[in-house]
Amino acid sequence: MHKFLRTIGFSLYQKDRDIEKLLDQICEDLSGLKRIQIDEESNLCELRKEVAPGMGIAIFGEMDREGKFRRSYYYPYLRTSDVTSDVPCTIQRHTERETYAGLLDEYKVGISLIFYIDNSFECRERLLDHHSMDTKDACLSGLSISGKILLPIQKSDKQREKARVAAKDRNTLLEAAKNGDEDAMETLTIEDIDLYSQASRRAMKEDLYSIIDSCFMPCGVECDQYSIIGEIMKIDEKKNSITGEEVYDFTIECSDLTFHVGIAKKDLVGTPEVGRRFKGQIWMQGIVNFKEKAE
Fold first, then answer.
1. How confident is the model at residue 109, as a pLDDT?
2. Among 245, 274, 265, residue whose Cα is nearest residue 147
3. What is the reported pLDDT for 65?
4. Do 245 and 239 form a contact (C-beta atoms < 8 A)?
5. Residues with pLDDT less than 70, the chain
6. How do beta strands 215-218 and 225-239 pair?
7. Contact present, 250 and 150 (Cβ < 8 Å)
8. Chain centre distance of CA 167
9. By the number of CB atoms within 10 A of the CB, which of 49, 124, 249, 265 ranks highest?
């Protein structure tokens, strides 16, 4: 059973046999099935079941010679059209399955951001048709199985503007340092030492979450899972059409990145409001938008 299935409102499905029954029901209607022929012997099929707007289960498999769909794997998804990043995305196929990972060298978070590509079927189509894999932008969303609501840090408009300018300057320095600028490397090192010293002094007298406004860092051994603290910009409430369970779809701003986070209401501690912060571990997935196909 997929760990993040409860995120989209399937928390009552605790056993594999219950999931198998659910998937069998979904596979009864193949009207939305997509199929591509990889070679003479094999094909790839994708079937999606939407249980709420932009949210559902994606099932992959192949069609046998008798015309029967045989599923191989599935995963829950949360889709958005809000652009998170427009930096070039590197796409690489996973070893085990016909799925893909995306890598963004995003200076805003200071790490290589790796995510599970939700439109892998489109990636495979483009590879088969020998189309360009150059990306235009990426729309990211995270699925969470537990989270907490934190109170916001009180800031004036002047402080917010100062933080935006500082973040922009730091991104410029990071880009220069990546290109080999030694002065930029030295400046960043000094800034990091000063920041560590300042945070250490404040931590002796203040609560940690009043010092850390937001954070975005890898979590666990899987490369597409992250621990985040981010400000809630928008709240959408959705209901699973099969189970009736309610799910939050947050628009989060975290380390100057804007993306969506889905979490079941029962898995969230605290009352969410715009301006408050969300803290939790997420599985990052997303859609990559490609540049126009070559003529």
1. 81
2. 265
3. 83
4. yes
5. 1, 293-295
6. antiparallel
7. no
8. 22
9. 249
Decide the pairing of beta strands 135-144 and 257-264.
Answer: parallel
pTM: 0.88
d(CA 198, CA 190): 12
Residue among 246, 234, 235 nearest 52 (CA): 246
Measured distance CA(117)–CA(86) in Å, rounded: 15
Token pair belonging to 180: 């080999």
CA-based nearest residue to 184, from 163, 169, 201, 204: 169
b/e string for 16-51 if b means 16 or more Cβ within 10 A?
A: eeebeebeeebbeeeeeeeeeeeeeeeebbbbbbeb
Q: Is the distance from CB of 245 to CB of 10 less than 8 angstroms?
A: yes
pLDDT computed for residue 93 by the predictor: 92
Burial code of 165-188, b = ≥16 C-beta within 10 A, e = fewer? eeeeebeebbebbeeeeeebeebb
What is the model's pLDDT at position 38? 83
